[in-house]
Write a structure and sequence with these properties.
- By secondary structure, this protein is α/β, with parallel strands linked by helices.
- Helix content is 38%, strand content 16%.
- The protein has a seven-stranded mixed β-sheet with strand order 1-7-6-2-5-3-4, sandwiched between helices.
- Helix 5 crosses helix 6 and helix 6 packs across helix 7.
- The N and C termini lie far apart (37 Å).
């Protein structure tokens, strides 16, 4: 899986970097071991910006929408590279188990807490609760990530990694209300990172 990730990285990166180079800020905030990378989402290219900003040393698992994984050849290659599908708008038990499994094995997980794209750059202030649940259930820190909506051709796009934080809850698993509170805090932390791109 990690071999396929490296192969695809080395094949795609030169072309992507030529047209849409990125510049990482705060990469030192990415912790060793398991972590949940949580960027805002404005374009389909956002996963590439985050992965390439992290560098080849890091090989995150990526949770992607199921429609993407059903594309012939491309879906097969993505699966080989460790990307797995989630059925949006449904209770996808398989995707939840896969996410928790990869975190418990010490891998990094990249997912978009808003659950969908906001092309105008606005953010869902509350976000979805999936990242919060994965964090609480596995004791894994959340890392807010900010990517600007405007991505100019041949110009470096900043990707800002914020400080990781580990949510605290009353019980062992946390409640739905606590997850919503964590999700809102996470989105606030992502939005605050915009100032570092000015």
């Amino acid at each position: 899986m990690k071999t396929w990730f490296s192969i695809l990285y080395c094949v795609v990166w030169p072309f992507f970097n030529l047209f849409h180079p990125c510049k990482a800020f705060g990469r030192e905030n990415i912790p060793e071991g398991a972590a949940i990378l949580c960027p805002n989402h404005t374009r389909m290219s956002d996963p590439f910006f985050v992965v390439f900003a992290m560098g080849l040393k890091e090989k995150p698992r990526v949770m992607a929408k199921a429609e993407l994984m059903s594309i012939p050849v491309i879906g097969w290659l993505l699966k080989k590279a460790g990307i797995f599908a989630v059925e949006r708008g449904k209770s996808d038990v398989g995707a939840v188990k896969e996410a928790i499994k990869c975190l418990r094995e010490g891998d990094k997980l990249l997912l978009f807490p808003e659950g969908t794209r906001h092309k105008d750059g606005t953010m869902d202030e509350s976000g979805k609760t999936g990242a919060a649940m994965f964090s609480v259930r596995t004791g894994t820190p959340l890392v807010p990530v900010y990517i600007p909506a405007e991505k100019k051709w041949f110009r470096r796009t900043p990707v800002v990694f914020g400080e990781p934080f580990l949510p605290q809850v009353e019980g062992r698993k946390g409640s739905s209300e606590e997850y919503r509170t964590i999700a809102k805090e996470l989105m606030g932390r992502i939005a605050a990172l915009e100032a570092q791109t000015r």
